[in-house]
Amino acid sequence: MDLGNADTWGAAIYFWIVPTVFGDAIFPPIPSEMLVITGGVLSAEGRANLFLVGLVAAVASWLGDLVVFQLFKRRLSHVLDRWKWGRAFHAGVHSAIAHAGRSSTYGAIIGVRFIPGGRLATSAAAGIADVSTRAFSLCAALGGFLWAFWSAALGYFTGSATQLPFWASSLIGVGVGLLIGAVIGVIVTRRRGNRSAIDDPAEELDI
Predict the structure, then answer these.
(1) Structural domain count of the chain
(2) Which domain covers residue 70, as residue numbers?
(3) pLDDT tens digits for range 30-64
(4) What is the pLDDT of residues 73-113, one digit of tens each?
(5) Does some domain include residue 207?
(6) Which of 28, 82, 101, 182 is deepest in the core (most CB within 10 A)?
(7) Which stretches are transmembrane (predicted)?
(8) Could you tell me if 188 and 113 are in contact, meaning their C-beta atoms sit under 8 angstroms apart?
């Protein structure tokens, strides 16, 4: 695959989005936002469909969130400790919740995903707090929809405004997205503190 060829990306972008956005729910360093923004940029160039990019990303986001939520809701997270990668994931959950905040309110489930590690943190915290599956599913679906179409739209408008090669427009879009996410992260951290809910599984978070 020629990564510098926009036509090649346009044909494959939908297939890359699904595993990347799904995997980001479990392993936040996966650059899912960059891929969705790239899909938006390609849409501005007529090489992808903006609505389809957003829809595919939203569905993948929702499914990934549900997997993490059910893992912690059913108290299956201890199974991960049998493997080295599982222990690393478990430690990552602690770190994500510490940075993104411990709230599992409906607003947090929807909104905290816009900051790095936010999806993992809120999905795990909601599972630990025993939020109802129906409520979490609806909030995760709405949050995934908003995040996916925001990212795709950011890429679309960046590509339309800059008229640069698609990869350059994608990097600019990612930079803008990270800046906005950092601002949200500062606000969230100041409001919620940074104590991890995993340290006290019996604690019921306000919903």
Answers:
(1) 1
(2) 6-199
(3) 888 888 998 888 888 888 899 999 999 999 999 99
(4) 887 666 666 656 566 666 666 655 555 444 456 777 777 77
(5) no
(6) 101
(7) 12-30, 50-72, 135-158, 164-188
(8) no
